[in-house]
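A quick aside before the break. I want you to see a complete sequence-to-structure record at least once, exactly as it would be stored in a machine-readable document. Don't worry about memorizing anything.
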Amino acid sequence: MNAAAPALSEKDATIWRYQAVTSDGSVQHGEMTADTEAQVVSRLRKQKLLVVQIAPATRGSALHRELLSLLGRGDATRLRGQEIAEFTRKLATMLTAGLDLDRALRFLGETATNKRGTKLIGALRDRVRDGNSFADALEGFPSSFSKLYVGLIKAGEAGGKLGEALLRLADLLERERKLKTTIQSAMIYPAVLLVASVFSIVLLLTHVLPQFVPLFEENGASLPMATKIVIAAGDFLTAWGVVILGAVLVGIALARVALRKPHLRLSYDRFLLRIPILGNLLREIMAAQFTRTLGTLMRNGVPLVGALRIIEGVINNTAGASCVMDACRVVREGGSLALSLENERIFPETMTHFLKVGEETAQLAAIALKSADIHEEASRVTIQRLLAVLVPAITIIMGVIVAGIVSALLLAMLSLNDLAH
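That is the input. The structure line, written in tokens, reads:
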């Protein structure tokens, strides 16, 4: 992993905020990650934007953006995953039916279900009509279209098979969406259980228990220590509950800002991979994502080194991305992809064995896609195992806490009975 150090320097992670004027005179705000301010200016000029102002994103603005994201008020111009998948499928259908790109984009813009989609598709069409390739137009909207998306479009345009590339891209996006939906659906029950349990505990401490406190005070009973602790906890939550909630939100936002530091994010991602069950799940998801993307890219004519560079930007776990970057260097020097990944011990052994067979039989793309099916199924099995541990654990822990609160209350009531006798 030592070769990954240059690519993970803090300089690479500099985020620049810019303000620019488009060809139609409207003002565009945005952010871009680059080494220097000159690189930002160069990229914006390629997009035919007139730069007005550029400044590094401050910690305060980053914290503000993370808080808005936690509250559900993120980037208002970004297309959601489902919207991108639908756009890709519809565009692929129209292009394979013989419609030209300009007319297809015009139709999609006119039939978009929201203003956000209409505006973005209109901007894409304008850039294509100005002489840019479709891939170059897509690069102007990195928050909506990933490097993988742009890379597949470039390969499709270069081979004169844009429609086929879009169809395969739509299939890839749909599979990724299904896997993501499976994970999200599986986590709904534990999340609801956890929220309901926490709400019940807070309700007991802040509303139910305080109704008995005057009764205890009137009788002058000597309360058990457990009851005193529970009453103090209820008073503390009543007085500071809102402050605690705000502090938690700010803490989460600060943690997300801190994880933008490459060395912290790398350590955090490595730690996640070491957690039992969860680490296995993350490895299987990474393997499915890696092999599915690799197979799709190579089937669309992208060479192996180019595919690995794109995959490096697709993998969310920085430890996995660094491993892919090292493998890309090894392949560029004539080495084996499978052996390089195997030596790093980041991805599952099953994946590296499949890739080794693919390299030996010169069927790397086909074998990678078959491997992706296996790892997606393994991800679903691992999710079931995680739930099998998580749900009982939440139930037991919250049950013990509620039982402790009720027991403390019953002890106080018994002390009142002793006084009466």
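Two observations worth writing down. Residues 284 and 379 are 6 Å apart (CA to CA). The first helix runs from residue 37 to 46. We'll return to this after the break.
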